[in-house]
Design a protein that fits this description.
heterodimer; A: 175 residues; mainly alpha; 7 helices; B: mainly alpha; 2 domains; 77% helix
């Protein structure tokens, strides 16, 4: 029973979602560790490709779990992965939302909020690091990464234009 | 608009259909993350929430475990329409990208080895990592600029544990969260 890919997808993403404070991006290193190093569902390159596909698709970035699920077990895998990733936490969010407002201004509530922020930032930084290692590495790719970071940090240009330019550069065979 | 009971604060109340449409719109516009579009639609265009209400609701979604924007759709939807509201907001947010990504997945699994597609993805991956670096820099900037503040220590420890030591996320999280919260509690 434990050997079924659907069972491992379900158990793994349901567990992961409960620790994914800071959103899908913060959970990327853990997804990478399990999908590539532990379960051997895919290699580094395939993982980086899936992150890129999730980024260029509109909508929440958590959609990467559907891509991983599809890779492992087809459409059933995609459905199971996204349900496991969103189901438990959505249920939790629904019930917490109803009580949370009553404790506005409570000291424990503010401490929890303030304590979670640095952890989620550290985890998202770790995601960027792990992805940079998983992706193909060469000088031109590193330049594109640096240029995109600068454009997104200092300007208000829609990142989609940078994605388009980077995709064309890749297509041209420069990378 | 008229069938909703007791508006929380703002005058305009969305119906279930409007909720669904709004989140479909947020979803299909949200390249590189849905948060900026959620704010734009809900606060600026539809005026369903004030800036403060949005920030508070989003802060709650952010520290709850799980994907932020998904949590936000549930919290927002339930506030305006109870359980059905939460369900339609979630369906609106997840439906369109699931369809799009299914098409991409099929293409990738069939043609993933093809040189052209993998070249394009190499370029886009490099850019996507750059975008993530910029986002984390923006989020971290206030934390590092504030003096007498323990937060950067916990951010750096979380980074080291996950990125450099490759420890499982649950251990890193459960090991650091109690201390991080305790420091926030005593810092006043």
């Amino acid at each position: 029973m434990n050997d079924s890919p659907l069972t491992s997808l379900l158990g793994y993403f349901a567990l992961l979602s409960l620790f994914a404070v800071g959103g899908a991006n913060a959970a990327i290193p853990e997804m990478h560790r399990v999908a590539v190093d532990v379960m051997h569902w895919m290699n580094d390159r395939q993982f980086a490709d899936m992150y890129a596909m999730a980024q260029v698709s509109p909508g929440p970035n958590v959609i990467i779990v559907a891509l991983i699920g599809y890779h492992v077990a087809g459409f059933a895998g995609a459905g199971v992965a996204i349900t496991a990733m969103c189901g438990p936490t959505c249920t939790l969010a629904f019930f917490v939302a109803r009580t949370w407002d009553r404790f506005k201004g409570a000291r424990w509530r503010m401490a929890i909020q303030a304590g979670m922020v640095p952890l989620s930032i550290g985890l998202i930084a770790a995601s960027a690091f792990v992805l940079a290692h998983a992706a193909d590495r060469n000088v031109y790719a590193a330049l594109i990464t640096a240029a995109t970071a600068a454009v997104a940090f200092f300007t208000r240009i829609n990142p989609l234009w940078v994605f388009l330019a980077a995709g064309l550069l890749g297509l041209s065979g420069w990378l | 608009m008229s069938e909703s009971v007791a508006p929380p604060s703002s005058a305009v109340q969305p119906s279930l259909t409007e909720l669904f449409h709004a989140f479909v719109l947020v979803s299909i516009s949200g390249f590189g993350g849905a948060l900026p579009w959620a704010r734009r639609t809900i606060v600026e265009k539809k005026r369903w929430m004030t800036t403060e209400e949005f920030n508070e609701t989003f802060a709650l979604s952010q520290f709850l475990p799980g994907p932020n924007v998904i949590n936000f759709s549930v919290v927002f939807g339930s506030r305006f329409g109870g359980a059905p509201g939460a369900a339609v907001a979630l369906a609106g947010l997840l439906g369109p990208p699931l369809i799009i990504v299914s098409v991409l997945a099929v293409l990738y699994e069939s043609y993933g080895g093809v040189e052209t597609l993998s070249r394009i993805l190499t370029g886009i991956t490099a850019a996507a990592i750059g975008l993530l670096i910029a986002v984390v820099a923006k989020m971290a900037a206030p934390m590092f600029l504030k003096r007498w503040n323990s937060a950067p220590v916990f951010a750096i420890l979380a980074f080291i544990g996950v990125a450099l030591m490759h420890w499982p996320l649950p251990y890193v999280f459960l090991g650091l969260a109690p201390f991080s919260i305790a420091f926030a509690w005593f810092k006043r």
